[in-house]
Design brief:
The complex is a heterodimer of chains A (590) and B (480). With 590 residues, chain A is mostly helical. Chain A has 30 helices and no strands. Among the domains of chain A are: 2-291, no CATH class; 499-587, no CATH class. Chain A is elongated. In chain B, 6% of the residues lie in helices and 45% in strands. Chain B contains four helices and 36 strands. Classes of the chains: A mainly alpha (590), B mainly beta (480). Chain A binds chain B through residues 48, 56, 209-210, 214-217, 362, 366, 378-381, 384, 387-388, 390-395, 409-412, 414-415, 417-418, 421, 459-466, 468, 472, 475, 479, and chain B through 117, 119-125, 140, 143, 145-148, 220-225, 227-228, 230, 288, 291-292, 401-406, 435-436, 438, 454-456, 459.
Chain lengths: 590, 480
Amino acid sequence: MLRKINRKSIEIFITGALLVAYFLYFALFNRYHINYQEQNQLFLWNLDFIKDQFSLPGGLVLYAGSFFTQFFVYSWLGAFIFTINAFAVFLLSSYIQKKHGFNNIIISFIPVWLLTILQSNELFIFSQALGFLALLSFCALYISIDKTRIRYILFFAGWPLLYILAGGFSIPAVILCVLHELLFRKEDRKYLISFLFLITGLLIPFLSSKLIYYIQPDKIFTYPLILELPSFYLYSLIIFLIWAPLALIISYLVNLRIKVKNSLLSWNLTNVFAGALIIVAMTFVISRYAYNKNADMMFGIDHHVQQSEWEKVLNLSERYPGYNTLVIYYTNIALYKSGQLFDKMFFYPQIGSRGLRLPWARNLNLFFGGELFYQMSYNSESIHWAFEALVAKGLNPRSLKRLAAGFIVNGHYDIAEKYIAILDQTLFYRKWAKKYQRYVDDPALCKNDPELKRHINLKTKSNYFSEVTGMNLPDLLSDHPQNKMAYHYLVASLLLDKNLEGFANAIMSIGNYGYKRLPLHIQEALLFYNFYEHKDVIPEGFSISPEVITRFDDYATTYTRFRTDRAAASYALKEKHANTYWYYLQFINN
Amino acid sequence: MPDFIELGENADLYPDYTSITIPPNIAPLNFRINADADKYITRFYNSDGFEFIISSGDGDIEIPLKKWENLLSASVSKEYYMDILIRKDDQWQKYNTVTNKVASDSIDKYLAYRLIEPEFETWNVMGLYQRNLENFDETPLLLNRVTDGDCMNCHTFCRNRSDIMTFHIRGQHAGTVIIRDGDITKVNTKTDSTIAPGMYPAWHPSGRYIAFTNNRIVQSYHAIPERTVEVYDTLSNIIIYDAEKNIITSCPDLSDPDRLETFPTWSPDGKYLYYCCADKHFVKKPDYESFMDTYSQIRYDLLRIAFDEESCTFGEVDTVLKVSDQVCSVSFPRISPDGRYLLFNKSEHGNLTIWHPETDLYLLDLTTGEVSLPDINSDKSDSFHTWSSTGRWIVFSSRRDDGLLYTKPYFAYFDTSGQAHKPFVLPQKTTDFYFKIMKSFNLPELITSRIEYNPRKFAGIIKAQAEDVDYKSFYNKEGE
């Protein structure tokens, strides 16, 4: 009895510990993945949304997935939902194993482990996890029924329903049910029934594609499974899907060898050690192959940009290893917004003016790339990018917010209202929608909103075409010389492109932008330019500090010492001067 | 009807279904009464004593189909009336009576259109649909979820017939799908001698030839709030596809390297091809830095060229309407089935003028050469129009409601005296339909009967390899 209690207690303890670890892994290490997934969808409380989700097989998992994903606005809540789902998967998996005479905590945890791997990738959205849950739920229900006739009825009536609700996730259920019949049941008709199960599994998707759904023939057995995953995750997904039937075969084989079964299931030191080793191996696979720390940091930067938490953006950016265009792009925005662009931009990796703007491309750039134009009050271009992102991604809160704000700024209130009305049907953006609806109802209130007020003040008056690769900075400044961000980005782009002549011209008007002293990198660039061109260009009322001159002397002395050996000069200067404009100018090749 | 007081003002309805002329076979014109009130009723009646009342708690007046059909059939060639009442503070108040006319001319039963997000470059979910105008049934013809997400565009019919149509697929399964005499084919209209696949198709009335624009398109984006995208051609010719011989040809006048020829349309007798033509010197070497200054000088005139159907040869070119010497440009010419009127777009410049807010529909009387501005335009873009098979109805795309983005199909009655009546938007089952929809109605085309295709039927041909067409040079042996 004591042994039994101890075993149960240990099982509960291990399960609990693993689930706590599961929660912490997502809450602490994948928190921004969770936030990012929320940004890519929009759950709406209306009938049209339900109809839309159910227009293809798998409607329920899509609908429920979107429902739960809306809560990922809080990453800890997302991690909790992940964990509840994982626990349900574990219980169902364990139940199925137990019913087939081979209940082992490690075996039951394998689907949870695979889920951990898959959910580490932002492309594996929550509806996919729910699809698997639906599959296991059906299988558990099926095998729980001992009465043969009722079990058959459940399959022939219930599986088509499962196909409608879970789409491609229902296919492994057919295999599992067939294996259950063939390997674990003794009815005379089991071969016939198994054959009919298979026929049903083929016929229902085929018929539904001919009668109910407009769907590509190559997707009738898979939709809404997302197969466009990096190879490691794709292999994990395949194993994930075939795991339940595979576990049944394993159970069958193990049951044939009672000795083996007993040795595997008994609680002894060897098994505990082996189990621990397996858990360690699983953890290693997750940390080595599934977890993408850089991606999470990148999504974190994106998250904090959306929250206008500029210092948090810079903190993450400092920790980000190597060069990443998106990170650099966001870092520069954060530097400007926190008033540090000209003092700190070369403390961070730079890749020329390409790091100021994302290239136009039909990919994620659309989603991220409009931020610059929004912040810069280049309203038509902000709308342009937000609209394209909305089209490419489907309804998402970020694009809708940008569009609503953009059309309010432009005075197109009817269009803005359309987007606000959508956000008003959500749980977490309703408050935002109410606020912006007030601006639509009474545009005079916009002046109480500093951001909208700024955009309205900088609304474009004279027409020009948007540049395909540039930012129309001279156009923006010609239209509104007071556009401070446009001015900063113009100067920054000249510095980044090493156009010192252009920089020297542009910097003369820095006094118009509220500066009381010349920022560090501006001083560095001016000093270099004056030295190199034998000029004395200094904007009126400003000076170059003695400290900067002293550092430049040191830089120049070291540089001169290694004049003939650039590699050595770079090495020697990097330690003390890597964060200077001089070093960027002379040693960073973009 | 309860006791009421007269308000002496017009009700604010959305859509605006007031003082309009409607066909006797149109779906119920449901509308919303924009007024704060506790209750709303609308009494529909005609001079023969036929009447019914619809009441509403939220201002949405949704008319049962049967009652509506009875009202229309009892009011053909006559007027019907709407008394709109609201109850506020326990007092019924009545707006001015609305009077609408029911024409004796039916409208073609179906409307085909593409539903697509209105803006810019990217596409995702789109489809071609047909809508039964006598009720609210909308069925998809083709959805790009069965075509690996490919784009589809330029659906066009021959003389409003649903059994002769064409449309393009762009992307992985590119090609032009042609349905003709019960056959469905997919051809690749890009040849070594042409600059691009065909665009903007126009069926010859015989159903044998299709004229296409063959162009290279550029898109640019305006900075000012009043405008969005500017679409223009840097190269443009017109080609003719012979569906019987599977060949493409053209002629020097339709392929002038110094000019941009586009938007072909046939006269109903098939003897002339009308098209728009602009001088190309502005865009010969487009300098995109300064193109803002020059693109606005691209202005199209309306020309026509004689065509011999038997030999598939072209004759002389006439200038039908010259506007390029003013600040004007012609686009989308469409001729009425009786051959008398040509409806076209006029804008300040350019060709894809649906993006120009100043674009209006103009009417050219081909017998007198007189140009008039029918009273169907708004101060926003009114474009992309087609005639019904009888010539008594016009459908066009308008951005009048939101002013910038989402186009909606509007219908206008065109009476025998050549007068166009106040237009009305395609009726919908729910009154908030247009507020909710996130797509534009693109290229509305009236067709007389149902198209017997659906996405499943189209899926096979879409994925089939497009058959290459041959190019037949229009030069003779001497190279003249």
